[in-house]
Amino acid sequence: VSHAFTTLLDLAPTLYQYADLDYPESWNGQKVYPLEGKSLFPLLNGQVTEVHDSTYVFAIEHRGHISVRQGDWKLVNSVLPFDQGNFELFNLSSDLGEQRDVKNEFSEKFSELFAEWEAYKKRVKVQFPTPKAGD
User: Fold this and answer.
1) C-alpha span between 73 and 89 (Å, rounded)
2) Contact in structure between 106 and 91 (CB atoms under 8 Å)
3) β-sheet bridge partners, residue 89
4) Runs of H (alpha helix) within the chain
5) Exposed (0-12), middle (13-18) or buried (19+): which is 101, by Cβ within 10 Å?
6) From residue 85, how far is each of 73, 81, 89, 90, 103 by CA, in Å?
7) What whole-number distance in Å separates Cα of residue 14 and Cα of residue 10?
8) Residues whose CB is less than 8 angstroms from the CB of residue 118 and which lie 6 or more positions away in sequence, other chains included
9) Is the Cβ–Cβ distance between 95 and 79 less than 8 Å?
10) Partners of 70 in the β-ladder
């Protein structure tokens, strides 16, 4: 059992390492985006106790749900529109169930993680669905 923070993005680098393969830099003449995860091998082999340190930022958007995590901090939003006022900030070390929004108490951390969200959104070209007329 490990309580280390890992993500789904860590599986591909782990499988590439297990298969002793290099991830391609290009495919059919097109540049391939680099893998964002890290191999879990050192964790699985007991060489380390964590895969990502407390400075690692993990961001994701999936079906209208946004999450940005760094260490014990988590920024979330699942409310349209996805503007800054609808995001909530949680400190998972004291609120694992994400019940108490602390964005007003920790406005600097909130701004930092919101900037990480904006950078992620731009880097991976997040596209939100366009509402239909009458919605």
Assistant:
1) 7
2) yes
3) 75
4) 11-18, 41-44, 107-124
5) middle
6) 18, 9, 11, 15, 10
7) 6
8) none
9) no
10) 57, 73
pLDDT for the residue 18: 94
Residues in the chain: 135
* Residue pair 68/7 in contact by the 8 Å Cβ criterion: no
Q: Check whether 14 has a pLDDT greater than 90.
A: yes
| Residue (of 73, 56, 68) closest to 126 by Cα position | 68
CA 103 from centre of chain: 18
CA gap 106, 102 in Å, rounded = 6
CA distances from 47 to 4, 36, 40, 50, 88 (A): 13, 21, 10, 9, 36
Task: List all residues 6 or more positions away from 12 whose beta carbon is below 8 Å from its beta carbon.
Answer: 23, 35, 37
Residue 41: CB partners within 8 Å, gap ≥ 6? 14, 17, 18
List the structure tokens of 73. Answer: 């901090």
pTM of the model: 0.81
pLDDT digits (tens, 9 = 90+) for 75-114: 999 887 777 888 999 999 999 999 999 999 999 999 999 9
Place of tokens 């006022």: 85
